[in-house]
Amino acid sequence: MNSARHLAAYLAVQAKVLDPGPHSVLHSAAPQAGHIEWLYWFTFWILFAVFVLMIVAFTRASAKARVVASHPLPVIEKDEAGDRRAGWAVGTAIGITVIALFVILVVSVITGKRVEGLTSKNPVTIQITGHQWWWEVTYPNSQADQTVTTANEIHVPVGTPVVVLTNSKDVIHSFWAPSITGKRDLLPGYSSAFWFEIDKAGIYHGQCAEFCGLQHAHMGFSITAESVNEFEAWQQQQLKPAAEPSSSDAIRGREVFLTHTCLMCHTIRGTDAGSHLGPDLTHVASRKMIAAETLPNTAGALAGWVVDPQRIKPGTQMSPNPLAPDDLQAVVAYLQSLH
Amino acid sequence: MKHRSLPLVFLLGGIAVLGSCSRENRILRQPPPANDTLNTIQISGLNPGANLIPTPPNSNMYQESAYAVSEGQKLYEEYNCVGCHAHGGGGIGPPLMDRNWIYGSEPGNVFATIMQGRPNGMPSFRNRIPEYQAWEIAAYVRSMAGLLPKGVSPNRTDQMNIKPAESSTPEQVPTGITGVPGQPK
Fold first, then answer.
1. Which of A21, A45, A256, A261 lies in the 20 to 30 Å Cα band around A62?
2. Using CA atoms, how far apart are residues B10 and A298, in angstroms rounded to an integer?
């Protein structure tokens, strides 16, 4: 009884491990990921059949093998009929292998073509730039004041093609959201483009898939797919300049932000801070996570990240900021007011 | 008998040699900034009476680390030092790859110049950048003038190659107010 319960608990844990939620090739939420998933299962079943055939043949062969205990070893007799049969068997196996591999190759190419092809006009365009170790996301517009800039949390409308322009600031990164589409490398000094489209509303997780230095593992992003109305509302919200701080703590926090090291790297639109080395913080409180999906966006995590980011992500470009406790409190209050 | 112990000697010797290999330690978690080193730094060679100029603090642990110097190289671009000093050749600001140092070439002098600013356009970065970054930039700036060992000077750049790498800059003897007046080689 007890062991049965243990087994059930074990299986439940295993099932959770096997289900990575919004980060899985096997949970496609987009037509492209659907093609890739189909290719995965197609290849899987062919290889599974090969595996079963191999095991069956191997088992039969070992069952038929004669155990010879006599010495000296028996003379090998010439058996022309047997050789001919063996020749046929080997030839057929080679033929089937070649055909199977060829079929897989052709199907892969077809899947690649399907994933590449852009099916619709009027896409949403997003520029994604890889940084060590975060993602800069802008929605380019010919008017500068209509350009949305954010970091790590990408919002897209459901059922609309999204064209992604890629680039990198420093080293090669790779954009990988397995529930949405395949991997795409972001190369420094080389602009490229790909597209995707999401069918189901939801939040999908992505990750850098090209080793890019110390904090490669802490370079995540999320894609929020929402209805067109919600997306437009989000965009309008992001276009606004930073909210004026109302509490005295937040007002003091803004002063600290603008008189310390913060403004050398970060932008808060509507204030004097306008540097583009780090993420745009104009609406930082509207994000769920900080530090490229490393920490939840809470007061404690923000404070820890501001004071000692090198403990959380050793090697990160963010410098430690040994602020006085009051100043730190104020800065965190200010950051949390930037909805 | 002697020959039998020879392989053992070689083995132990080899292990000892391998053990002496050390990888450079990157300083990722910075020590807290030192107390007011800035105000002890002499910025002018003018001095009443006999030569009483105390030597500026010369200890810059960052200039012993190739990683820190390359961080300095990156920050030199990012904080727009290039805007005035270009890639060492100067322009709006004085060149940094020659041997003439208006405000001194010692690590402390360069650090003080960055933090305090100087007349005719050099802005002060005090309270704008963390002290350790100023030390990293100071280390990189000295590497441009060939004042750092080749082992720590950057030998590549993320930008277009417009001048030879810092690691191939010939070593120089600086001249300047607090520098040692030297003879050209």
1. A45
2. 59
Looking up tokens 């050398």 gives: A264
Query: Considering only alpha carbons, which residue of chain A is nearest residue B128?
Result: A261
Task: Give B128→chain A minimum CA distance, Å.
Answer: 4
Tokens for A9?
């608990």
Chain A residues near any Cβ of chain B (below 8 Å) = 170, 259-261, 263-264, 277, 308, 310-311, 314-315, 319-322
What's B91's DSSP letter? S
Residues 6+ apart with CB under 8 A from A200: A29, A158, A225
Tracing tokens 């950051």 back to the chain, one arrives at A335
A264:B79 CB<8 A: yes
Question: Where is A162: in which H helix or E strand?
Answer: strand A162-168
Residue of B nearest to A257 (CA): B128
Q: What is the ipTM of this complex?
A: 0.77
Which residues 6+ apart lie within 8 Å of A71 measured at CB? none
Q: Are strands A184-186 and A220-226 parallel, antiparallel or unpaired?
A: unpaired
What is the number of helices (H) and of strands (E) in chain A?
A: 8, 12
As a whole number of angstroms, the distance between CA B185 and CA B180 comes to 14
Q: A314 vs B133: CB contact, 8 Å cut-off?
A: no
- Between CA A76 and CA A203 the distance in angstroms is 68
Count CB neighbours of B45 within 10 A: 14
CB contact under 8 A, B26 and A315: yes
| CB atoms B129 and A264 under 8 Å | yes
Contact B28 A314 (CB under 8 A): yes
Distance in angstroms (rounded) separating the CA atoms of residues B42 and A227: 64
Q: How distant is the Cα of A193 from the closest Cα of chain B, in angstroms?
A: 23
| Per-residue model confidence (pLDDT) at position B40 | 61
The pTM of this model reads 0.81
Phi/psi at A314 (5° precision) = -55, 130
Reported as a single tens digit per residue, the pLDDT across B30-70 is 776 665 566 666 666 566 666 555 555 567 788 888 999 99
In whole angstroms, what is the distance from residue A273 CA to residue A331 CA? 14
Closest-CA residue of chain B to A321: B130
Strands A124-131 and A162-168: parallel
Residue A115, token pair as written in the block = 């994933």
Q: For residue range B2-27, what is the model confidence (pLDDT) as tens digits?
A: 577 888 888 998 888 887 777 788 88
Contacts of A310 in chain B (CB under 8 A): 28-30
Cβ contact, residue pair A315, B28, below 8 Å: yes
Q: Do B130 and A321 touch (CB under 8 A)?
A: yes
